[in-house]
Automatic annotation (TrEMBL), chain A:
Catalyzes the NADPH-dependent reduction of beta-ketoacyl-ACP substrates to beta-hydroxyacyl-ACP products, the first reductive step in the elongation cycle of fatty acid biosynthesis. This is 3-oxoacyl-[acyl-carrier-protein] reductase. One of its GO terms (biological process) is fatty acid biosynthetic process. It catalyses: a (3R)-hydroxyacyl-[ACP] + NADP(+) = a 3-oxoacyl-[ACP] + NADPH + H(+). It holds the Pfam family adh_short_C2.
From TrEMBL, chain B:
One of its GO terms (cellular component) is cytosol. One of its GO terms (biological process) is lipid A biosynthetic process. InterPro entries: ACP (IPR003231), ACP-like_sf (IPR036736), PP-bd_ACP (IPR009081), Ppantetheine_attach_site (IPR006162). PROSITE patterns: CARRIER, PHOSPHOPANTETHEINE. HAMAP family: Acyl_carrier (MF_01217). One of its GO terms (molecular function) is acyl carrier activity. 4'-phosphopantetheine is transferred from CoA to a specific serine of apo-ACP by AcpS. This modification is essential for activity because fatty acids are bound in thioester linkage to the sulfhydryl of the prosthetic group. 4'-phosphopantetheine is transferred from CoA to a specific serine of apo-ACP by acpS. SUPFAM superfamilies: ACP-like (SSF47336). Belongs to the acyl carrier protein (ACP) family. Residues 2-77 form the Carrier domain. This is Acyl carrier protein.
Length: 245, 77
Protein backbone atom coordinates (compact mmCIF):
# COMPACT_ATOMS: atom_id res chain seq x y z
CA UNK A 1 0.00 0.00 0.00
CA UNK A 2 2.76 2.45 0.89
CA UNK A 3 5.36 3.03 -1.80
CA UNK A 4 8.73 4.43 -0.81
CA UNK A 5 10.50 3.74 -4.10
CA UNK A 6 13.30 6.23 -4.66
CA UNK A 7 13.36 7.35 -1.02
CA UNK A 8 16.40 6.91 1.20
CA UNK A 9 15.98 6.20 4.91
CA UNK A 10 18.45 6.25 7.79
CA UNK A 11 17.51 4.05 10.75
CA UNK A 12 19.49 4.18 13.98
CA UNK A 13 19.58 1.22 16.31
CA UNK A 14 19.03 -1.05 13.31
CA UNK A 15 20.86 -3.90 15.03
CA UNK A 16 18.05 -4.17 17.58
CA UNK A 17 14.71 -5.94 17.28
CA UNK A 18 12.54 -2.91 16.63
CA UNK A 19 15.12 -1.08 14.49
CA UNK A 20 15.67 -4.15 12.35
CA UNK A 21 11.93 -4.54 11.79
CA UNK A 22 11.65 -0.86 10.84
CA UNK A 23 14.49 -1.18 8.33
CA UNK A 24 12.85 -4.27 6.82
CA UNK A 25 9.48 -2.57 6.52
CA UNK A 26 10.88 0.55 4.83
CA UNK A 27 13.05 -1.58 2.56
CA UNK A 28 10.09 -3.77 1.72
CA UNK A 29 8.19 -0.67 0.58
CA UNK A 30 10.97 0.14 -1.85
CA UNK A 31 13.19 2.49 0.16
CA UNK A 32 16.96 2.41 0.21
CA UNK A 33 18.01 1.98 3.83
CA UNK A 34 21.06 3.05 5.81
CA UNK A 35 21.48 0.76 8.80
CA UNK A 36 23.16 2.44 11.74
CA UNK A 37 24.16 1.04 15.08
CA UNK A 38 27.17 0.20 17.19
CA UNK A 39 27.30 -3.57 16.61
CA UNK A 40 28.59 -4.12 13.09
CA UNK A 41 27.98 -7.89 12.83
CA UNK A 42 24.17 -7.79 13.16
CA UNK A 43 24.07 -4.79 10.82
CA UNK A 44 26.08 -6.67 8.20
CA UNK A 45 23.81 -9.69 8.62
CA UNK A 46 20.69 -7.55 8.16
CA UNK A 47 22.17 -5.84 5.10
CA UNK A 48 22.99 -9.23 3.60
CA UNK A 49 19.44 -10.40 4.27
CA UNK A 50 17.96 -7.31 2.62
CA UNK A 51 20.28 -7.48 -0.40
CA UNK A 52 20.21 -4.46 -2.70
CA UNK A 53 19.45 -0.97 -1.40
CA UNK A 54 20.96 -1.60 2.06
CA UNK A 55 24.02 0.10 3.50
CA UNK A 56 25.78 -0.41 6.81
CA UNK A 57 26.65 2.85 8.56
CA UNK A 58 28.13 2.11 12.01
CA UNK A 59 27.99 4.99 14.48
CA UNK A 60 28.55 5.43 18.20
CA UNK A 61 25.72 7.74 19.20
CA UNK A 62 27.53 8.82 22.36
CA UNK A 63 30.24 10.41 20.17
CA UNK A 64 29.02 13.87 19.06
CA UNK A 65 31.43 14.14 16.14
CA UNK A 66 30.47 10.72 14.80
CA UNK A 67 26.77 11.64 15.08
CA UNK A 68 27.24 14.96 13.29
CA UNK A 69 29.07 13.17 10.48
CA UNK A 70 26.43 10.45 10.04
CA UNK A 71 23.89 12.31 7.82
CA UNK A 72 26.61 13.15 5.30
CA UNK A 73 27.89 9.56 5.33
CA UNK A 74 24.34 8.39 4.70
CA UNK A 75 23.91 10.78 1.78
CA UNK A 76 27.28 9.75 0.33
CA UNK A 77 26.27 6.09 0.53
CA UNK A 78 22.63 6.33 -0.57
CA UNK A 79 22.51 9.47 -2.73
CA UNK A 80 19.99 11.37 -0.59
CA UNK A 81 18.32 11.30 2.80
CA UNK A 82 14.55 11.60 2.85
CA UNK A 83 13.51 9.66 5.95
CA UNK A 84 15.18 9.71 9.37
CA UNK A 85 14.16 7.21 12.03
CA UNK A 86 15.70 7.87 15.42
CA UNK A 87 15.18 4.50 17.00
CA UNK A 88 18.37 3.87 18.96
CA UNK A 89 18.07 3.92 22.70
CA UNK A 90 19.76 2.67 25.83
CA UNK A 91 18.55 2.11 29.37
CA UNK A 92 20.44 2.49 32.61
CA UNK A 93 17.71 1.84 35.13
CA UNK A 94 18.13 2.93 38.71
CA UNK A 95 15.80 4.10 41.44
CA UNK A 96 15.76 7.86 41.37
CA UNK A 97 17.28 8.36 44.82
CA UNK A 98 20.38 6.53 43.69
CA UNK A 99 20.61 7.76 40.14
CA UNK A 100 24.08 9.07 39.36
CA UNK A 101 24.84 11.99 37.10
CA UNK A 102 26.47 9.56 34.72
CA UNK A 103 23.41 7.27 34.56
CA UNK A 104 21.29 10.30 33.82
CA UNK A 105 23.60 11.94 31.32
CA UNK A 106 24.50 8.87 29.28
CA UNK A 107 20.83 8.05 28.68
CA UNK A 108 20.00 11.66 27.78
CA UNK A 109 23.04 11.84 25.47
CA UNK A 110 22.21 8.76 23.44
CA UNK A 111 18.40 8.83 23.53
CA UNK A 112 17.74 12.55 23.17
CA UNK A 113 20.82 14.58 22.24
CA UNK A 114 21.96 12.27 19.44
CA UNK A 115 18.44 12.38 17.98
CA UNK A 116 18.59 16.18 18.10
CA UNK A 117 21.93 16.17 16.28
CA UNK A 118 20.62 13.85 13.57
CA UNK A 119 17.41 15.86 13.12
CA UNK A 120 19.52 19.00 12.79
CA UNK A 121 21.81 17.29 10.30
CA UNK A 122 19.00 16.20 7.97
CA UNK A 123 17.22 19.59 7.93
CA UNK A 124 19.29 21.05 5.12
CA UNK A 125 18.87 18.23 2.58
CA UNK A 126 15.17 17.86 3.46
CA UNK A 127 14.54 21.61 3.15
CA UNK A 128 16.22 21.61 -0.24
CA UNK A 129 14.17 18.75 -1.57
CA UNK A 130 10.95 20.11 -0.03
CA UNK A 131 10.19 16.64 1.32
CA UNK A 132 11.19 14.87 4.47
CA UNK A 133 10.03 12.50 7.15
CA UNK A 134 11.40 12.52 10.68
CA UNK A 135 10.18 9.75 12.94
CA UNK A 136 11.41 9.63 16.49
CA UNK A 137 10.83 6.47 18.48
CA UNK A 138 9.65 7.55 21.91
CA UNK A 139 8.08 5.24 24.47
CA UNK A 140 4.94 4.79 26.50
CA UNK A 141 7.02 5.62 29.58
CA UNK A 142 7.70 9.09 28.14
CA UNK A 143 4.00 9.75 28.72
CA UNK A 144 3.28 7.63 31.78
CA UNK A 145 6.60 7.50 33.65
CA UNK A 146 8.05 4.29 35.02
CA UNK A 147 9.73 3.53 38.33
CA UNK A 148 13.48 3.13 37.90
CA UNK A 149 13.46 4.94 34.58
CA UNK A 150 13.49 8.67 35.37
CA UNK A 151 16.36 9.14 32.93
CA UNK A 152 14.80 7.08 30.14
CA UNK A 153 11.32 8.58 30.63
CA UNK A 154 12.76 12.11 30.60
CA UNK A 155 14.62 11.43 27.36
CA UNK A 156 11.58 9.83 25.72
CA UNK A 157 9.28 12.68 26.82
CA UNK A 158 11.91 15.10 25.59
CA UNK A 159 11.81 13.50 22.17
CA UNK A 160 8.09 14.22 21.92
CA UNK A 161 8.51 17.91 22.77
CA UNK A 162 11.39 18.22 20.34
CA UNK A 163 9.44 16.44 17.61
CA UNK A 164 6.49 18.82 17.98
CA UNK A 165 8.75 21.89 17.86
CA UNK A 166 10.49 20.66 14.72
CA UNK A 167 7.10 19.86 13.18
CA UNK A 168 6.01 23.48 13.67
CA UNK A 169 9.14 24.90 12.13
CA UNK A 170 9.33 22.88 8.95
CA UNK A 171 5.73 21.94 8.15
CA UNK A 172 5.60 24.56 5.39
CA UNK A 173 8.52 22.84 3.66
CA UNK A 174 6.90 19.48 3.15
CA UNK A 175 8.73 17.95 6.08
CA UNK A 176 6.80 16.12 8.77
CA UNK A 177 8.07 15.17 12.21
CA UNK A 178 6.25 12.60 14.28
CA UNK A 179 6.86 10.26 17.19
CA UNK A 180 5.93 6.63 17.68
CA UNK A 181 5.54 5.53 21.29
CA UNK A 182 5.73 1.74 21.69
CA UNK A 183 4.38 -0.03 24.75
CA UNK A 184 5.77 -3.41 25.75
CA UNK A 185 7.29 -5.02 22.68
CA UNK A 186 8.61 -8.58 22.53
CA UNK A 187 12.34 -8.34 21.78
CA UNK A 188 15.53 -9.97 22.98
CA UNK A 189 15.28 -7.70 26.02
CA UNK A 190 11.83 -8.94 27.09
CA UNK A 191 12.74 -12.59 26.31
CA UNK A 192 14.82 -12.50 29.47
CA UNK A 193 11.75 -11.92 31.64
CA UNK A 194 10.33 -14.89 33.52
CA UNK A 195 6.89 -16.27 32.59
CA UNK A 196 5.60 -14.83 35.84
CA UNK A 197 6.90 -11.37 34.98
CA UNK A 198 5.45 -11.61 31.49
CA UNK A 199 2.03 -12.63 32.88
CA UNK A 200 2.04 -9.60 35.19
CA UNK A 201 2.86 -7.29 32.29
CA UNK A 202 0.21 -8.84 30.04
CA UNK A 203 -2.39 -8.38 32.77
CA UNK A 204 -1.91 -4.60 32.42
CA UNK A 205 -2.42 -4.64 28.66
CA UNK A 206 -6.00 -4.68 27.33
CA UNK A 207 -4.75 -6.61 24.28
CA UNK A 208 -3.37 -9.16 26.80
CA UNK A 209 -0.09 -9.62 24.95
CA UNK A 210 3.11 -7.83 24.12
CA UNK A 211 3.43 -6.12 20.76
CA UNK A 212 5.73 -7.25 17.99
CA UNK A 213 8.55 -5.23 16.39
CA UNK A 214 6.61 -5.51 13.12
CA UNK A 215 3.67 -3.68 14.68
CA UNK A 216 5.96 -0.75 15.51
CA UNK A 217 7.51 -0.91 12.05
CA UNK A 218 4.05 -0.66 10.47
CA UNK A 219 3.39 2.60 12.34
CA UNK A 220 6.75 3.97 11.19
CA UNK A 221 6.06 2.89 7.61
CA UNK A 222 2.77 4.78 7.63
CA UNK A 223 4.33 7.97 8.99
CA UNK A 224 7.15 7.70 6.41
CA UNK A 225 4.72 7.32 3.52
CA UNK A 226 3.55 10.06 1.13
CA UNK A 227 0.02 9.28 2.36
CA UNK A 228 0.90 10.63 5.84
CA UNK A 229 1.91 14.04 4.47
CA UNK A 230 -0.77 15.84 6.52
CA UNK A 231 0.18 14.11 9.79
CA UNK A 232 2.80 16.07 11.70
CA UNK A 233 3.64 16.72 15.33
CA UNK A 234 1.71 13.61 16.26
CA UNK A 235 2.61 10.87 18.68
CA UNK A 236 1.33 7.51 17.53
CA UNK A 237 0.88 5.24 20.56
CA UNK A 238 1.25 1.57 19.73
CA UNK A 239 0.69 -0.19 23.02
CA UNK A 240 -2.24 -2.60 22.89
CA UNK A 241 -4.34 -0.14 24.84
CA UNK A 242 -2.00 -0.09 27.85
CA UNK A 243 -2.24 3.70 27.95
CA UNK A 244 -4.93 5.38 25.87
CA UNK A 245 -3.53 8.82 25.18
CA UNK B 1 25.35 46.83 -10.82
CA UNK B 2 27.93 44.13 -10.24
CA UNK B 3 27.53 40.60 -11.48
CA UNK B 4 27.32 39.35 -7.88
CA UNK B 5 24.49 41.75 -7.06
CA UNK B 6 22.57 40.63 -10.15
CA UNK B 7 22.89 36.98 -9.22
CA UNK B 8 21.92 37.62 -5.59
CA UNK B 9 18.92 39.65 -6.71
CA UNK B 10 17.79 36.87 -9.04
CA UNK B 11 17.86 34.37 -6.16
CA UNK B 12 15.95 36.71 -3.84
CA UNK B 13 13.30 37.47 -6.47
CA UNK B 14 12.81 33.82 -7.30
CA UNK B 15 12.82 32.57 -3.75
CA UNK B 16 10.68 35.20 -2.09
CA UNK B 17 8.46 35.91 -5.10
CA UNK B 18 8.94 39.69 -4.87
CA UNK B 19 9.18 42.38 -7.57
CA UNK B 20 12.72 43.09 -8.68
CA UNK B 21 12.48 46.82 -7.91
CA UNK B 22 11.63 46.05 -4.27
CA UNK B 23 15.04 44.42 -3.82
CA UNK B 24 17.01 47.52 -2.95
CA UNK B 25 20.30 47.96 -1.10
CA UNK B 26 18.66 48.41 2.31
CA UNK B 27 15.70 46.09 1.79
CA UNK B 28 15.44 43.78 4.79
CA UNK B 29 14.56 40.21 3.86
CA UNK B 30 12.24 39.85 6.83
CA UNK B 31 10.85 43.38 7.34
CA UNK B 32 10.53 44.50 3.71
CA UNK B 33 10.48 41.39 1.54
CA UNK B 34 8.17 39.17 3.58
CA UNK B 35 10.67 36.43 4.41
CA UNK B 36 10.21 34.29 7.51
CA UNK B 37 13.15 32.93 9.48
CA UNK B 38 13.24 29.71 7.46
CA UNK B 39 13.29 31.71 4.21
CA UNK B 40 16.43 33.48 5.39
CA UNK B 41 18.10 30.12 6.07
CA UNK B 42 17.10 28.93 2.62
CA UNK B 43 18.38 32.13 0.99
CA UNK B 44 21.75 31.57 2.65
CA UNK B 45 21.75 27.95 1.41
CA UNK B 46 20.96 29.19 -2.11
CA UNK B 47 23.77 31.78 -1.92
CA UNK B 48 26.21 29.08 -0.82
CA UNK B 49 25.26 26.93 -3.77
CA UNK B 50 25.29 29.73 -6.35
CA UNK B 51 28.66 31.12 -5.31
CA UNK B 52 30.36 27.94 -4.08
CA UNK B 53 31.10 29.43 -0.65
CA UNK B 54 30.44 28.46 2.96
CA UNK B 55 28.49 30.93 5.07
CA UNK B 56 28.88 29.99 8.75
CA UNK B 57 25.82 30.36 11.01
CA UNK B 58 27.22 33.34 12.92
CA UNK B 59 27.91 35.18 9.66
CA UNK B 60 24.51 34.19 8.25
CA UNK B 61 22.84 35.94 11.18
CA UNK B 62 24.42 39.25 10.16
CA UNK B 63 22.98 39.06 6.65
CA UNK B 64 19.73 40.95 7.12
CA UNK B 65 19.40 42.98 3.93
CA UNK B 66 20.07 42.58 0.23
CA UNK B 67 23.07 44.91 0.63
CA UNK B 68 24.43 42.77 3.50
CA UNK B 69 24.27 39.69 1.31
CA UNK B 70 26.02 41.30 -1.66
CA UNK B 71 28.73 42.70 0.61
CA UNK B 72 29.36 39.41 2.39
CA UNK B 73 29.46 37.37 -0.80
CA UNK B 74 31.73 39.90 -2.55
CA UNK B 75 34.22 39.56 0.29
CA UNK B 76 33.93 35.79 0.52
CA UNK B 77 34.19 34.86 -3.13
Amino acid sequence: MFDLSGKCALVTGASGGIGGAIAKALHGAGATVGLSGTRVDPLEALAAELGDRAFVLPCDLSDPEAVNALPKQAIDAMGSLDILVNNAGITRDQIFMRMSDDEWQSVLDVNLTSAMRLCRGVMRPMMKSRWGRIINISSIVGATGNPGQANYAAAKAGLIGMTKSIAYEVASRGITANAVAPGFIATAMTDKLTDDQKAKINAQIPAARMGTPEEIAAAVLYLASPEAGYVTGATLHVNGGMAML
Amino acid sequence: MSDIADRVKKIVVEHLGVEEDKVTENASFIDDLGADSLDTVELVMAFEEEFGIEIPDDAAETIQTFGDAVKFISQAS
